[in-house]
Amino acid sequence: MSKDSQMRAAINQKLIEMGERERLKELLRAKLVECGWKDQLKAHCKDVIIEKGLEHVTVEDLVTEVTPKGRALVPDSVKKELLQRIRAFLA
Amino acid sequence: MKMEDMPLSGPDNTRLEALVHDIYSELVDDACLGLSFEVHRAVKQGYFFLDETDQESMKEFEIVDQPGVDIFGQVYNQWKNKECECPNCKRLIAASRFAPHLEKCLGMGRNSSRIANRRLATNNTMSKSESDQEDNDDLNDNDWSYGNQTSPRRSKSLKHKNGTYFFRCRHYNYSSGINYETLGPDEVRSVLTTGCVMPRCPGRSQRCPQHTDEQRRAARVFLLGRPPPLPDVDAVMESDTFDIPDGQSLMSRLQWEDSPDVSPTDSASSKATCCAQNEAKTLRSRSSAQKMVFIENKLNVKHCAPPRKLYSSRTRYALFRNTAERRGEAREAARGGQFEDVMFGHF
């Protein structure tokens, strides 16, 4: 298992060093804005804020609300494309 | 570039896939975190709810999605079929054409004055004497020929009826005409062998249409001091038999020392009949070449050489081309507009 984690660490390092991680991040962000994922999530945040009260909202609240919903809302096409790119990089 | 030091097999494949998914999840989590930070900051800074107002206003400006109506709820071709009465001409004009019609009708606005001016201009020029000038042009065009250059015709062509002839000269640039006083002996030789020998004649061929053979022979005799050997004086062969005359003697011959009457200043101030009589006397004793120069001076065309007997279009064009090439200004020849100026006197 440590070999596995070693491998992961090595891969991550490679990813960062070659700037591929940044590129993938930007690509994902652009695609999510394009498909309306961001607006959807923002609307959800609005509800949460109104629910919790404007003054008492914390970062943790928002994060715990946003992350699972966000993961679920990513469209399939975007997911597939990103997986493809990562595989291509690793291969 | 790629990671090629990872040989893949069955179990490794699944592990790789898991790895890929993990990387993907990390990226998505990053995106979500970024969004939540953004929203949190907006909330705390107070600009998160700025695009929302009270419910009433929200209802008022809601996006409309009905047929025949734009998203604001307005009908866009509402005024299409309506007609308005023009206060000026009392006609019924369609609403969309009303403003331009009013502009023309009242005579205000940018374009109406322009159109009116143009109309006035065309009406005026039609009644002018432009047609006369056209006739003159045609006349002169067909008139050139060898040995037909009597002076009355030349003086007729000199009358500057309008700017046309004058500017025609200017464009044609008679400075290309030969002025023997300014040439050195070598240049004189080249001129004698290439261009027309008559002084101040811009013709490029040895048989330029402006001057008769007799005139040319006379000019040669005068300049070179001997009659040319061959009977066909103006054949090109003759160029080989020229001696370069002594530059000084040539220049002195050009001075007209013994005929003060021929000087330009005199011609400029010719007033009394006695002057004219003197001139007639001196004129009779001169060769035809000298007569030519004298006449030129008399007619007092210094800066703009007389628009000679106007050449035919073809000759003019050929001369123009030659001039341009000689001066290495191929640009001028290529520029069509310049040629047109020469042809038609527009500028």
Q: Could you explain how this protein is built, in words?
A:
The complex is a heterodimer of chains A (91) and B (347). With 91 residues, chain A is an all-alpha fold. Chain A has five helices and no strands. In chain A, helix 3 (37-52) runs antiparallel to helix 4 (59-73). The longest helix of chain A has 16 residues, at 2-17. The radius of gyration of chain A is 17 Å and the shape is extended. The two termini of chain A are 22 Å apart. Chain B is mainly alpha-helical and 347 residues long. A two-stranded antiparallel sheet of chain B has the order 1-2. Chain B is elongated, with a radius of gyration of 43 Å. The chains are: A mainly alpha (91), B mainly alpha (347). Chains A and B meet through helix 1, helix 2, helix 3, helix 4 and helix 5 of A and helix 1 of B. Chain A: Keywords: Activator, Chromatin regulator, mRNA transport, Nucleus, Protein transport, Transcription, Transcription regulation, Translocation, Transport. Chain A: GO terms for molecular function: transcription coactivator activity. Chain A: It is found in: Nucleus, Nucleoplasm. Chain A: It holds the Pfam family EnY2.
Topology:
The complex is a heterodimer of chains A (91) and B (347).
Chain A: H1 2-17, H2 20-34, H3 37-52, H4 59-73, H5 76-90
Chain B: H1 10-45, H2 55-60, E1 83-85, E2 92-94, H3 95-106, H4 110-127, H5 130-141, H6 151-158, H7 163-172, H8 185-194, H9 213-224, H10 247-253, H11 264-268, H12 273-284, H13 288-299, H14 313-326, H15 330-334, H16 336-344
Antiparallel strand pairs in B: 1-2
